[in-house]
Write a structure and sequence with these properties.
There is one protein chain. It is built from 2 helices and 29 strands. The protein has 354 residues and is mainly β. Strands 2, 5, 6, 9, 10, 13 and 28 form a 7-stranded mixed β-sheet that branches. Strands 11, 14, 17, 18 and 19 form a 5-stranded mixed β-sheet that branches. Strand 17 and strand 18 (209-211) form a beta hairpin. Residues 1-15 and 321-354 have low confidence and may be disordered. The structure holds 2-acetamido-2-deoxy-beta-D-glucopyranose (3 copies). One 2-acetamido-2-deoxy-beta-D-glucopyranose is lined by residues 157, 159, 200, 202, 204, 209, 330. One of its GO terms (cellular component) is plasma membrane.
Length: 354
């Protein structure tokens, strides 16, 4: 079957050559719509998936689809059919339908092959049920509580519950939940932080929600921690590839006593365009509709009365966006929401627990 697919590509070359000799009114197929990647919720077999494919051409093009390089035989297929050029799949099945799809459009003048589109199924497993050990901290110290995200596919959002569900940790300049790692960062522990912390993970595609076992935070009784300069605990990678038109999010958060203030700048102090948004007490910088002129080095600075530290990285530009479609309106594209990753560094060592 793979051979047949390759043979069709060869045909296209011959088809194009032949086209020169004939009536100029006729032309080979040209893409109008090519299929996009899909992430589908796993628990919704009743939903249908549509892989789009449309080409212009005279005579009208005929369409064929391949899955993992093998032509799909639609004769007698009860779950799949082609409408226009679109491939429509009913009664979705993880084993039969996940893979790489490609569409071909052909007429007497030639054949063209589309982009490859990946179909994946989103899922979110449960947390391990084992008990989490207590974290002992001094008042004034910084601490990182690890979420320990279970196996998953599809975009996740994170929140933390303090003591009783649904009493969520409210983020401010002292508390930060990374949407990249799910970890909870407390810049400077205060007395009222003592209690149990539960990580809540949400899959935006499947709508599944899972809760970790609680991590107790307890205070050590051997004195408070003195003041110290900011230690950047969450920061974006050295190089962040960003697709044209996408929304880029950079995370930056520091532990410190007093609680550090976060600010951002670009190298050469190029001002930020007005579209740039800061949120979560400046811990998140968002650049919507990323363009060529937004490339460059971005720096986040964490400062308190004891000193300051900076972290920087380069945003690079990719002209070709690779859109990811999802079947639910609320689901977001992975590349539309590019987060920096956390990278622990520096001393005094923050306590880290899982
Ligand atoms: C297609 O290939 C992928 C990756 O190798 C594999 O996971 C998937 O199961 C394959 N799909 C089918 C329908 O065989
Ligand atoms: C934390 O959880 C433990 C065990 O469930 C419980 O004994 C303790 O009272 C809780 N602590 C707080 C502050 O709620
Ligand atoms: C889960 O995600 C949905 C939307 O994706 C949001 O409305 C909801 O508040 C989230 N829940 C938690 C606990 O994060």
């Amino acid at each position: 079957m793979t051979l047949l697919w390759k043979w069709l590509v060869l045909l296209s070359i011959n088809g194009c050559l032949a086209a020169y000799a004939e009536d100029a009114l006729f032309h080979g197929p040209r893409w109008k719509t090519e299929p996009s990647d899909l992430i589908l919720p796993i628990h919704s077999p009743k939903q249908e998936a549509v892989l789009a494919c449309e080409a212009s051409g005279i005579p009208l093009p005929q369409y064929r689809w391949s899955l993992n390089g093998t032509l799909i035989d639609l004769d007698g297929d009860e779950r799949r059919h082609v409408s226009g050029g679109n491939l429509i799949i009913n009664t979705l099945d993880r084993d039969q339908d996940a893979g790489v799809y490609q569409c071909s459009a052909s007429n007497a003048r030639g054949i063209i092959l589309s982009h490859r589109a990946t179909v994946q199924f989103a899922y979110l497993e449960n947390f391990k049920t084992q008990q989490r050990s207590a974290v002992n901290v001094r008042e004034g110290q910084g601490v990182v509580l690890l979420c320990g995200t279970p196996m998953h596919s599809g975009e996740l959002t994170f929140a933390w519950v303090f003591n009783e569900y649904p009493n969520f940790v409210q983020q401010d300049s002292r508390l930060f939940v990374s949407q990249e790692t799910g970890n909870l960062y407390i810049a400077k522990v205060v007395l009222s932080d003592v209690g149990n912390y539960t990580c809540v993970v949400n899959n935006s595609i499947t709508k599944d929600k899972v809760l970790s076992s609680p991590t107790p935070l307890v205070l050590r009784n051997d004195g408070a921690m003195g003041e110290y300069e900011p230690k950047i605990e969450v920061h974006f990678p050295d190089t962040v590839p960003a697709a044209k038109g996408s929304s880029v999010k950079l995370e930056c958060f520091a532990l410190g006593n007093p609680v550090p203030k976060i600010s951002w700048r670009r190298t050469n102090d190029v001002p930020f365009p007005s579209k740039v948004k800061l949120s979560n007490s400046n811990a998140i910088l968002e650049i919507p509709r990323f363009q060529q002129e937004d490339t460059g080095t971005y720096e986040c600075v964490a400062e308190n009365s004891r000193g300051k530290n900076a972290a920087k990285g380069r945003l690079s530009f990719h002209a070709k966006p690779h859109w990811l479609q999802t079947m639910t309106a609320t689901a977001l594209s992975i590349e539309e929401n590019l987060f920096g990753s956390a990278k622990p560094m520096g001393s005094p060592n923050p306590l880290t627990t899982g």
